[in-house]
Amino acid sequence: NADMAMYEAKRKGKNTYQFFGHKLNERIYRRFEIEKSLRRALEYEEFKLLFQPQIDTITHAITGAEALIRWEHPTLGLVSPGEFINVAEDSGLIVPIGKWVIREVCAHIKDWIVARIPLVRVSLNVSPRQFQDENFVDYFTQVLSETGVSGKWIGVEITECGIIQDVQYAQKTITELRKMGIAIDIDDFGTGYSSFSYLMDFPVDKIKIDQTFVKDLHLEKAAAIVKSVISLARNLNILSIAEGVETEEQSKLLTSFGCDEQQGYFFHGPVDKGALIDLLTDEL
Ligand code: C2E
Ligand code: MG
Ligand code: MG
Ligand code: MG
């Protein structure tokens, strides 16, 4: 796209080239601004969580929700995690941000218990560096005991590259999390190195089929891969969930393949906690 813009600009002459330069500056400025203000974002309470429901393929009941972080930047507006999680990983800020996510999810669940909202499991994303942090499990233990929330209401989503870096450490960490009742979901399954061997080494609860496969589900090859992943999961006694389900056609295909759960705009986008509570109580 940048190449196209450059080509167009050159074709149109000098003035447009300057315009393109201006846009490039804007992008660099934005990145600079993100790096600079990320450090203060926690302190200024600029993060919030949205929740995207996950539904049972057969009953269409909500079985869980994924917590997705949002950054409301005072001048840049809403910054998506795609723009700042990498920056946070590089600078190490992902560790305190990840701790905030853990605290926030547990605080919400505690509120829902008090308000007698019918609970579902809330899954949170853990990036590789956060997973590698030596205090990760201890911090989780501490927050669960402080809030009195049981680990059975929590899931963690980790990517394959997050676990294959240090298999022994991952095995120990995952075993400790599962002892606390926390579910382990493999995020973006099929896009990483996908050495299946870790599936023998770790107890995994759910495989999340990446949205790139779901997007191409109308193509024979993508459909074959998705079918195979679903049967792989079933044979290993692991649940399967497809993410990024946007159309009825995709949903029907996934249902016919025997996918256990689905998540995507076709059912619900990410919603704020009030809307999630409405959805959970409406189901009664
Ligand atoms: P992910 O965990 O794979 O999350 C799925 C992404 O797909 C989310 O983007 C979600 O809003 C989006 N999505 C959901 N349904 C659909 C759909 O039907 N179609 C399409 N095209 N997209 C859909 P989001 O919220 O922008 O998050 C992007 C990524 O940022 C996440 O990918 C996750 O890797 C990361 N992330 C989000 N929240 C956190 C967090 O609290 N901590 C960490 N470490 N990473 C996070
Ligand atoms: Mg995820
Ligand atoms: Mg994912
Ligand atoms: Mg993804």
TrEMBL record:
Domain EAL: 31-284
Ranges that cross the membrane: none
Highest taxon of source: Bacteria
Protein name (Swiss-Prot/TrEMBL): EAL domain-containing protein
Full protein: residues contained: 310 to 593 of 593
